[in-house]
Write a structure and sequence with these properties.
The chain is α+β, with helices and mostly antiparallel strands. The protein contains eight helices and twelve strands.
Length: 298
């Protein structure tokens, strides 16, 4: 059985992340972003093996299961490394009384899906990726509905409480999030809005007078410097189906073009038909995304 060990120092952590980024190039991260994510975990372990990496964390928004990422380089597959990570992570979770794993696999990786299915995992969430290549793309006018103004959060920093009110409705309405626990305001502000990949000038608000009725934001990483990731687009329930989300998205696209970005990326839950249809109308094209599979310990 291959040896699986905890990351002991910064060099180990860098190696672990390099393996992850090689397997997930469209989701590549920097160490700073990993540390920001880890700061949200109640407990976590970063593991390393010969040609593979593993990460397991207990997250406050779904305390009954663990988030697990196992990545094995293609040339090291088929030699028991994935099984070794699974057994080591399962033992770590059993010590903490957790009996359920949520693991993410590439949507187009039939071998990884078969590996998980064979061990009793089932699909619980599918996040399809959509990409917009900005070279040669002519953005559409923002055109918000009557009575709605689209503004930058950077110009209205005191409206963060209003953004949070939108988030509390929007996050819970995303298919797959309905059993999640929403972060308290201060935690949400620190981690979701002021993390290393967040920018106030790339966060846009839909205002009806003084009320925030919707918002959209990008996230950024130095690991993908020419690409911006759509992080969240949310509208209050009472204000939906009026074209607000479309106006927010169009404002984001214009901002990205003006600031020299080459590609926009988003991942939407497969059951979230309204936002997927909006992205298609705006010119986004589908690409392989990620599947969340839930299963037992080894």
């Amino acid at each position: 059985m291959p040896e699986i060990r905890p990351c002991a120092d910064e060099a180990d952590k860098a190696e672990s992340l390099a393996i992850y980024n090689a397997v997930w190039p469209l989701d590549a991260l920097t160490v700073d972003e990993v540390r920001s994510f880890e700061s949200r975990a109640t407990e976590y372990a970063d593991l390393l093996g010969p040609g593979g990496s593993g990460w397991v964390g207990l997250m406050p928004w779904h305390p009954d299961s663990a988030d697990v990422f196992v990545t094995v380089l293609p040339e090291h597959r088929g030699h028991g490394l994935g099984s070794a990570f699974y057994e080591r992570i399962s033992a770590w979770l059993a010590e903490r009384g957790v009996r359920q794993i949520d693991s993410t696999v590439p949507e187009d990786d039939a071998d990884s899906i078969a590996f998980a299915t064979k061990r009793g995992f089932r699909e619980v969430e599918r996040n399809g990726r959509m990409l917009l290549e900005l070279a040669g793309y002519e953005p559409q006018p923002v055109s918000p509905p009557n009575g709605i103004e689209i503004v930058s959060w950077a110009h209205f920093p005191d409206l963060s409480r209003g953004i949070y009110e939108v988030a509390c409705e929007a996050f819970m309405d995303v298919p797959g999030n309905r059993d999640w626990l929403m972060d308290p305001y201060d935690d949400w502000l620190e981690h979701d809005m002021q993390g290393p990949g967040d920018r106030a000038d790339a966060t846009f608000l839909a205002l009806a007078g003084d009320e925030v009725v919707g918002y959209s934001k990008f996230s950024f990483t130095a690991a993908r410097p020419t690409s911006a990731q759509h992080d969240m687009t949310g509208v209050k329930r009472a204000w939906r189906r009026r074209g607000i989300a479309g106006a927010l998205k169009r404002r984001q696209i214009i901002w990205a073009k003006e600031n020299g970005y080459e590609r926009l990326a988003t991942q939407n839950e497969a059951r979230n038909e309204p936002i997927r249809k909006l992205n298609t109308r705006l010119g986004y094209r589908e690409a392989p995304g990620r599947i969340v599979m839930r299963g037992p310990l080894a």
